[in-house]
């Protein structure tokens, strides 16, 4: 009995699938929709998942556990060899030395160099001590420790900078790094690794930046703390947790983009599946006449859905993998620049991802398929026999859509007042987007109905065209919704990025108004300023330290309140005279905070914050919030004197110099004379360009995803158009037989389409504005704490208009071409049976 | 064989109840072919629909080889339509995306009763040999109907129900098709109940019934 | 603590093919000084490292007993290796690399640890302190002599949270192995400079599992350096150091050879320190069966029972390891553990089986 049913189902499936052999385009579009949607979604998932795993890696250093750090404090900038050896000889073998230096090459590339003692580095995963374990380095490890040493360069960095094996990078200070070897260790990211011996030679130093510490039991930790000399402090490695928390928003944003792309892809699928089922209605009816019950049909259709889902998932997964790897370097460098996160450069596809994607696509396809099946179930065979292929105008469906649209938008309005997390924000966006999308078909119908009515009777061609819209709309409405979604998302994000770019650049210009920035351990700042008073217009030496406040890394900066960049500090929110109040330091201990403190920590103007100082917690009153774009941490500014009063450990944090004539070349000798080393300073132009580069990179991903989503929507449109023309071919043949010529045909068929796209486009503009307003005024603030004004530009609108028009023309022409090809046949068959 | 007794069927209309079949009874023996004649609206299609299970009688019973058709479940009807009762329509109802060979073997495959020898016999009798790899869309009306006939008989059903099978064909073709139909039905040892409005076509069958004003008379 | 074991292998193996760790010991001594006959050892200078030679060790084994009569076995070794045959610039670019093993046979189990350090940075080494004391250390494992000699001295180390502090001393002179310290390892000429101190008196304490045990017993120190101690055809050796009930000390070792006959050597040291070398034909050494020993790579069969006959000294004994679980899964894995002596003499000792 079972096999009988099985054979039957197999044959039903063969009958159903034969449809695609004769109409391969439908299969292509179906797969395309699935593949694209899954690809974009899984690319984002892969990137996000990968980044998040890498954060967990922050608990390690080049393969060794790093649960704690031992860092220098106070006057010290480094950990001495003597201290390190002394601790080891006391039995603290969990320690290993680390140098982490930022270097600039002759070619102006900034690189980070890591060094450690590989003989002391406790590899965490050397579970089996057998000699069969792969060496931490591929190749001759001895070369790393033996002059002329070696530099481990990750392949991705090597290809980016054009480094070949054996090349020696030259630094701005003239020193050359050891010959490069292309290999990468865990957590190396895009950094270079050398042995400590090599680092000492190249950097001309003999101490470490800090020490790494593997696991410590509570008693060991206690013992170590007691054994630490003055000037060294043991801190827990919080990086992994911090990174997760800090980057959460970014990842949610990326995920949102991925989901949007998937949904748009599903629209295509929906369309294609529905259409193909409709085209097979006659076949379905015939099968029922031949005794195939609804349960068998449903099962067969479900199997077909499964087939497409699996195929789409595999293709989409593969494509998503490629895409993810393509996009990852950009994401990695943003994450690295913004948060200091180290991400390994390649993504791996896991079964779990594919399974997730498969389930989602299966759900999507099932939803698409469920409607028609349910409808069929309600009809008897006889009713189905009389069902025509033409899709009817269904006022009830429109009514349902309009109601749903209103409901969603209403819900969105209510929800607006409840949002206080990034996820909430995106739920709100989803409600707005889908509410708008659902409102589109009724709007379109209304528009055409109005257009048809208001045209004079003599414009009969146009009126025909308007009424024809009613025939086209059922097929196109889903594609139009997809188009609307993509356009709105595009506009919203473009406006966000555009506004951000303007705000950021303006802010940067004010904040980075100095001509040169110097960070040097050897510079005698006083000497410099007295030596060259004529050249220096103004200077600003800052001090500061990092601590934790509200369980987040926080920067405390001691500033010169009269310095040019402080007098014109861009304030987001402040009390009147905040800048002078703060400079005077009345008994209230006024403090300035970055606006992240306001938006993310919830501190209001005039409230006080309690900061941990050397002598215990001290309260400061916040008199102003300043813009601090790009900073993931909290930051507080205080006059230098105040900072040194409360924090003995405050270090010099660089010197900013305004030159009389902005001739840096002329000034450089003075810098060298005062003790700075080449490479210790950077000029404003460079700094700005690096900052902007980071900015652009961060949003490049969003831009890429956006464009791709628009592409997916374009495909949806194309697919829908192809299917209409396919289906209406006999109608066109009728028209041709009646004497309708090509131009008239184009008007009737193309007119409504152009009208629909125009209405959709026009609707997208205000919705895009609403979306960008939500993004800028709410979500961005909740996510990052950065506020900025909305800067509406018609540029993206123009771009999108051009893109959409091009798509329209392309599809129109292709449609015309296909119809031309198929018309003769259709005309012949018009005559009936031969 | 088919037997129906006291079948009645009517439809609710806005202005009252319209009876279509009024207490009709009849029998079709195995291997017999019966034509069902009547004017438009006389209820002949309705009777056919009742026997095919496409509609439910208000009163009366139907038996097919001692299987009761009245009150039969949907599942039973499906099985009946797969294995015992096949349908031939005026507009052929072929699967447009399958070729002729697959089309004519489809019903038998779905019933799990594919007999290749008999299929080949039918193909020969119906003159379909050269057309096997074409699509229905490429065939003439007569050719398509012949395929439909092959499909309906390939599994040797108990009963073939035909609803104006020559309605879309010109006279010459119709005659050819009718001849072939009867020939093949006999070869399959199936019964045939055919609805038609043409006495000329009806002449090809063994018996003739007339439906008038909801009542059935035999010729 | 887990260490960059594989890295160390990579470092130490200057040969490209490193499928057997002990290849190091077999590899060509090119560039390094070879041990040649006519060696003259002088102390205390020769207690310190010989960087011109590739490999060197300071090797202590001991059998101790605590107040309750429980047995404790000690094995502590400091290995030095020269990475390249150049003068040592010192500092982080030092040519020297160090490795230390500490293994403790406790009444319940066997614990051991392995550590590495580069030379030149004071993390490990063997030197004279500013005050002229013998100092051999790696991290917090330290052998510190009261004077320029290792004995008398103290050895302190921790293994797996067990702390061992031992006072070591000896009344007898240093024993020169082989021919005045020139110890030939293979017919083809591979040799090492080798001297020992077989009569070390030990007293100290072991802090283990929250208890402190006062221990006493005898120890044995081996000092050896070479640039090629094994011939290419020699997979490894079996080495026995035994303290017999008569007060004599007997050392026997066999270098197994795949192509030539095994090299067999030994030495007999009287209680007052007079020693005489034993040549191969004076010793009969045979394995008496194998035992399963579990290692990380699976179970191995190791010969843990042997019979030794030295007719010249009327020795006919059976040497066996009471516990089989003394495999060290270190960078160079080997078996080392306490043994008991029965037969013509009673006694205790240590056995080392390498290259299996």
Describe this structure in words.
The complex is a heterotrimer of chains A (834), B (219) and C (356). Chain A has 834 residues and is of the alpha+beta class. Among the domains of chain A are: 1-59 and 238-389, no CATH class; 74-236, no CATH class; 536-659, Barwin-like endoglucanases (Beta Barrel). In chain A, the strands form four sheets. In chain A, strands 11, 12, 13, 14, 15, 16, 17, 18, 19 and 20 form a ten-stranded mixed β-sheet that branches. In chain A, strands 8-5-4-9-3-10 form a six-stranded mixed β-sheet. Chain A has a two-stranded antiparallel sheet with strand order 1-2. The radius of gyration of chain A is 33 Å and the shape is elongated. Chain B has a single domain (2-218), classed as P-loop containing nucleotide triphosphate hydrolases (Rossmann fold, 3-Layer(aba) Sandwich), CATH 3.40.50.300. Chain B has helices at residues 44-52, 74-83, 100-111, 116-125, 141-153, 171-188, 199-202, and strands at residues 2-13, 16-28, 33-37, 59-64, 67-68, 85-88, 159-163, 191-195, 207-212, 215-218. In chain B, strands 6-7-8-3-9-10 form a six-stranded mixed β-sheet, sandwiched between helices. The longest helix of chain B is centred in the last third of the chain and has 18 residues, at 171-188. Chain C has one domain (5-354): Beta Barrel (AttH-like fold), CATH 2.40.370.10. Chain C has helices at 5-12, 23-26, and strands at 55-66, 71-82, 96-105, 110-118, 124-128, 134-138, 141-145, 153-159, 162-169, 175-176, 182-184, 191-208, 211-226, 236-244, 249-256, 263-269, 275-278, 284-287, 291-295, 298-302, 305-310, 315-320, 327-328, 334-343, 347-354. In chain C, strand 8 (153-159) and strand 9 form a beta hairpin. The radius of gyration of chain C is 19 Å and the shape is globular. Chain C starts with a helix and ends with a strand. The A-B interface holds A 4, 7-8, 11-12, 15, 18-19, 21-23, 282-283, 285-287, 289-294, 296, 380-382, 829, 833-834 and B 49, 54-55, 74-75, 77-83, 86-87, 93-98, 102, 106-107, 109-112, 135, 137, 140-141, 144, 168-169.
């Amino acid at each position: 009995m079972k096999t009988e049913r099985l054979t039957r189902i197999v044959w039903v499936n063969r009958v159903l699938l034969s449809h695609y052999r004769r109409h391969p385009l439908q299969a292509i579009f179906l797969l395309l929709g699935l593949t694209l949607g899954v690809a974009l979604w899984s690319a984002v998932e892969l990137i996000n998942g990968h980044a998040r795993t890498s954060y967990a890696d922050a608990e390690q250093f080049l393969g060794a556990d790093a649960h704690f750090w031992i860092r220098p404090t106070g006057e010290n900038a480094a950990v001495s060899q003597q201290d390190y050896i002394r601790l080891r000889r006391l039995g603290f073998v969990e320690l290993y030395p680390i140098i982490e230096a930022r270097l600039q090459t002759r070619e102006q590339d900034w690189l980070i160099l890591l060094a450690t003692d590989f003989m002391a580095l406790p590899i965490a995963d050397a579970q089996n001590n057998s000699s069969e374990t792969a060496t931490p380095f591929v190749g001759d490890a001895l070369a790393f420790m033996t002059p002329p040493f070696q530099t481990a360069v990750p392949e991705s960095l090597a290809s980016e900078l054009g480094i070949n094996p054996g090349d020696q990078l030259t630094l701005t200070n003239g020193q050359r790094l050891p010959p490069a070897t292309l290999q990468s260790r865990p957590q190396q990211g895009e950094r270079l690794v050398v042995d400590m011996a090599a680092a000492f030679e190249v950097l001309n130093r003999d101490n470490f930046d800090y020490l790494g510490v593997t696991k410590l039991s509570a008693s060991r930790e206690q013992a170590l703390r007691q054994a630490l000399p003055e000037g060294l402090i043991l801190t827990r490695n919080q990086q992994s947790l911090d990174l997760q928390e800090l980057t959460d928003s970014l990842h949610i944003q990326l995920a949102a983009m991925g989901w949007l792309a998937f949904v748009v892809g599903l629209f295509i699928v929906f369309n294609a599946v529905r259409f193909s089922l409709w085209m097979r209605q006659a076949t379905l009816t015939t099968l029922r006449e031949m005794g195939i019950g609804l349960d068998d049909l449903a099962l067969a259709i479900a199997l077909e859905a499964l087939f497409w889902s699996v195929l789409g998932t595999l293709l989409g997964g593969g494509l998503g993998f490629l895409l993810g790897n393509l996009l990852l370097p950009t994401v990695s460098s943003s994450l690295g620049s913004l948060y200091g996160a180290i991400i390994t450069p390649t993504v791996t596809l896991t079964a779990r991802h594919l399974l997730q994607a498969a389930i989602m696509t299966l759900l999507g396809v099932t939803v698409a398929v469920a409607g028609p099946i349910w409808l069929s179930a309600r009809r008897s065979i006889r009713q189905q026999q009389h069902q025509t292929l033409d899709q009817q105008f269904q006022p009830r469906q429109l009514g349902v859509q309009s109601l749903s649209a209103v409901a969603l938008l209403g819900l969105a309005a209510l929800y607006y007042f409840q949002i206080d997390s990034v996820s909430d924000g995106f739920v709100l966006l989803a409600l707005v987007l889908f509410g708008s999308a659902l409102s589109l078909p009724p709007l379109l119908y209304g528009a055409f109905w109005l257009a048809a009515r208001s045209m004079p009777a003599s414009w009969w061609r146009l009126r025909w065209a308007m009424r024809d819209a009613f025939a086209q709309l059922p097929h196109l409405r889903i594609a139009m919704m997809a188009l609307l979604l993509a356009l709105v998302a595009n506009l919203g994000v473009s406006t966000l990025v555009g506004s951000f770019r303007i705000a950021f650049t303006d802010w940067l210009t004010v904040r980075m108004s100095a001509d040169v920035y110097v960070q040097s351990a050897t510079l005698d700042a006083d000497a410099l300023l007295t030596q060259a008073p004529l050249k220096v217009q103004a200077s600003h030496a800052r001090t500061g330290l990092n601590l934790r406040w509200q369980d987040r890394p926080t920067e405390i900066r001691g500033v010169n309140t009269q310095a040019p960049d402080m007098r014109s500090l861009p304030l987001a929110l402040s009390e009147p005279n905040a800048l002078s109040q703060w400079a005077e330091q009345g008994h209230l201990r006024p403090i300035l905070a970055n606006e992240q403190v306001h938006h993310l920590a919830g501190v209001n103007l005039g409230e006080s914050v309690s900061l941990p100082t050397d002598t215990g917690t001290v309260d400061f009153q916040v008199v102003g919030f300043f813009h601090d774009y790009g900073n993931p941490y909290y930051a507080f500014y205080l006059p230098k004197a105040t900072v040194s009063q409360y924090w003995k450990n405050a270090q010099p944090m660089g010197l900013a110099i305004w030159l009389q004539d902005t001739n840096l070349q002329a000034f450089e000798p003075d810098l060298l004379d005062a003790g700075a080393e080449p490479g210790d300073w950077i000029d404003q132009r460079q700094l700005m360009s690096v900052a902007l580069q980071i900015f652009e990179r961060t949003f490049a991903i969003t831009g890429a995803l956006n464009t791709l989503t628009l592409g997916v929507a374009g495909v949806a449109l194309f697919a829908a158009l192809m299917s209409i023309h396919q289906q209406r071919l006999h109608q066109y043949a009728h028209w041709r037989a009646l004497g309708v010529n090509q131009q008239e045909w184009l008007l009737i068929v193309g007119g409504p389409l152009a009208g629909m796209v125009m209405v959709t486009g026009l609707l997208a503009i205000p919705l895009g504005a609403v979306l960008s307003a939500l993004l800028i005024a709410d979500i961005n603030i909740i996510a990052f704490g950065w506020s900025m004004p909305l800067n509406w530009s018609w540029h993206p609108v123009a771009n999108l208009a051009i893109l959409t028009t091009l798509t329209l023309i392309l599809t129109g022409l292709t449609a015309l071409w296909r119809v031309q090809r198929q018309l003769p046949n259709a005309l012949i068959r018009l005559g009936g049976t031969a | 064989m088919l037997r129906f007794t006291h079948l009645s069927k009517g439809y609710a209309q806005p202005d009252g109840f319209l009876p279509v079949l009024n207490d009709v009874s009849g029998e079709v023996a195995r291997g017999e072919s019966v034509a069902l004649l009547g004017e438009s609206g006389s209820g002949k299609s309705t009777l056919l629909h009742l026997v095919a299970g496409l509609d439910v009688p208000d009163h009366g019973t139907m038996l097919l080889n001692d299987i009761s058709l009245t009150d039969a479940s949907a599942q039973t009807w499906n099985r009946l339509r797969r294995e015992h009762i096949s349908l031939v329509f005026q507009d052929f109802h072929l699967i447009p995306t399958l070729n002729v060979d697959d089309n004519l073997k489809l019903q038998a495959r779905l019933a799990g009763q594919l007999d290749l020898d008999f299929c080949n016999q039918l193909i020969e009798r119906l003159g379909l040999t050269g057309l096997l790899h074409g699509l229905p869309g490429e065939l003439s009306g007569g050719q398509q109907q012949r395929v439909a006939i092959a499909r309906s008989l390939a599994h040797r059903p108990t009963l073939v129900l035909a609803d104006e099978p020559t309605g879309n064909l010109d006279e010459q073709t119709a005659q050819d098709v009718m001849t072939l139909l009867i020939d093949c039905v006999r070869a399959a040892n199936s019964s045939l109940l055919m609805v038609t409005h043409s006495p000329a076509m009806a002449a090809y069958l063994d018996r003739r019934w007339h439906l008038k004003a909801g009542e059935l008379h035999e010729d | 603590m887990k260490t960059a074991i594989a890295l160390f292998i990579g470092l130490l193996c200057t040969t490209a093919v490193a499928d057997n760790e002990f290849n190091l010991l077999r590899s060509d001594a090119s560039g390094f000084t070879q041990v040649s006959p006519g060696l003259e050892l002088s102390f205390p200078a020769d207690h310190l490292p010989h960087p011109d030679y590739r490999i060197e060790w300071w090797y202590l084994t001991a059998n101790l007993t605590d107040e309750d009569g429980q047995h404790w076995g000690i094995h502590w070794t400091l290995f030095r290796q020269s990475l390249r045959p150049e003068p040592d610039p010192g500092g982080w670019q030092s040519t020297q690399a160090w490795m230390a093993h500490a293994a403790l046979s406790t009444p319940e189990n066997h614990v051991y640890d392995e550590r590495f350090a580069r030379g030149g940075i004071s993390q490990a080494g063997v030197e004279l302190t500013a005050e002229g004391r013998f100092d051999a250390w790696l991290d917090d494992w330290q052998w510190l002599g009261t004077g320029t000699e290792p004995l008398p001295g103290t050895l302190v180390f921790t293994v797996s949270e067990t702390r061992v502090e031992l006072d070591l001393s000896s009344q007898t002179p240093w024993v020169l192995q082989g021919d005045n310290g020139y110890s030939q390892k293979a017919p083809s000429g591979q040799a090492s400079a080798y001297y020992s101190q077989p009569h070390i008196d030990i007293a100290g304490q072991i802090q283990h599992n929250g208890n402190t045990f006062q221990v006493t017993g005898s120890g044995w120190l081996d000092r050896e350096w070479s640039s090629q101690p094994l011939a290419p055809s020699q997979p490894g050796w079996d080495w026995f150091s035994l303290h017999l009930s008569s007060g004599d000390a007997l050392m026997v070792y066999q270098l197994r050879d795949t192509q030539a006959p095994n090299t067999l050597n030994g030495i007999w040291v009287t209680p007052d320190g007079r020693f005489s070398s034993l040549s191969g034909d004076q010793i009969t050494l045979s394995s008496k069966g194998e035992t399963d020993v579990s290692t990380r790579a699976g179970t191995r069969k190791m010969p843990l029972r042997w019979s030794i006959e030295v007719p010249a000294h009327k020795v006919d004994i059976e040497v066996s390891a009471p516990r089989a679980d003394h495999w060290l899964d270190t960078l160079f894995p080997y078996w080392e553990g306490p043994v008991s002596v029965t037969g013509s003499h009673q006694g205790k000792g240590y056995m080392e089986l390498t290259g299996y």
